[in-house]
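[09:14] KT: can someone run the structure on this one? pasting the chain below
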Amino acid sequence: MSLLHNAVPPGRSGEAIGVRMSLVNMSQITMPLLFGALGTVLGMVPVFWATALLLSAGSLYARRRG
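[09:31] RB: done, structure tokens below
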């Protein structure tokens, strides 16, 4: 939150926090639905592989920004 507050223009931190909260809440709804549907259709192995790929992509992105 501190990094977010420092990165946005002055006076717009409330908007940035609102966008962050919206994205976090949206992912809390969509990811379980997506992985539940994937698990129903294909079984559990692809769900674990998809989770591993998403986590790996996120860590690579974070490392490059680092």
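[09:33] KT: thanks! The chain has a mean pLDDT of 89.
[09:34] RB: yep, looked fine to me
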